[in-house]
Amino acid sequence: MSIIASAFSRLSLHQTFHRSFTTSSVVALSVTPILCGEPLKKKKKIDPAIIKQREDRKRKKLEKQIRRLEKNARQLKPIDEMEVPLSLIDEKDKRTRPLPKLTAEVVERRALLEKSWARYQLQEKLRDYKIIDRVQRAQQKALQELRFESKELYDQAIQIDPNLVPIHVDGPTATPAIDNYESPDGEYVNISKKWD
Amino acid sequence: MMKKSLCQLRNLYKCYSHVSNRSLSVYEPVYLELLKPPYPVYETLNVQIKGYDYAILENYQRYVRKVANAMELEIATAWAAPPEKFKIQKFKPQSSVVESEYVLTLYHRTIQLLQVGAPSVPVLLRLTQAALPEGVSLSFAEHSDEDEENRYVPDRELNEMKKELDELGGPVKKRK
Fold it and tell me: Annotated region Disordered: where (chain B) (predicted)?
């Protein structure tokens, strides 16, 4: 009996792939559990030429996208001090003051002052130009003389001085540095906006 | 005396020999030689100024332009870089309680000069350094790609794509 049953069970298992079945008690058949296993699939061997082709296609696609993005105009970093803060624009009415009426005398005096300032500036500028001109001419003359004296030295003199550029110069400070100054404890952190 | 003048004469000949040569050239127009700068040049020279006081910095920038113009140097462009901000905290002695706090802004300006002859650079440096106002620093440097890159907002998407492409092995070589 048991042999027949097992035979039947195997039979029914075989049929599971073709139709739905029930294992209700009415049929009174016990079924071995389904084992969902199958031999491992053999890895498909792809031609290396095809792999290369696929990669090339991917790279080309990326390149195309990069080119497209590069075509867009690049954005300059915003300069904080060049933009008027929104709060000032909002408070414009509050902040504008009525200017007092100036008397003719004051207007006249200011105009004269402005003119004499302009004159002074002009003189200053001319002085600057003169100095620059003098320095440059003196340099030209010296180089010319050197050239007459010896061409080799002249050639050396006009060469780019690799020790000069790059150079960094700090301007004067309001007060001279204090000798042996013990600075207080504290922190000095750069909090400017980071761009990555 | 005679010997010295002879020597000078020879030097003079050496100096002008190339001039006479170039006037003799038949196949090339003369002005091509004349257009070449007489001294070795810095192709680009960036004059960068930094300062904490905006008004003074702007005025100094004007002065640098003026000097460069007077020296007949070619000014290509001038630009501003975003300011650097520093937070400075002073602690009370023997503790980490903040006594005072300051925020300082360091503004940047750059003026780019083109084709600066080597002998003009020390002159320009002396003239600009002599007029350097309080708290402003000046630096000369040749222009680099990095300076150019620093002016723009970096495009993250583009950079990522470039990185990915590099990982894949660089751009595809064109067939010839």
Answer: 142-176
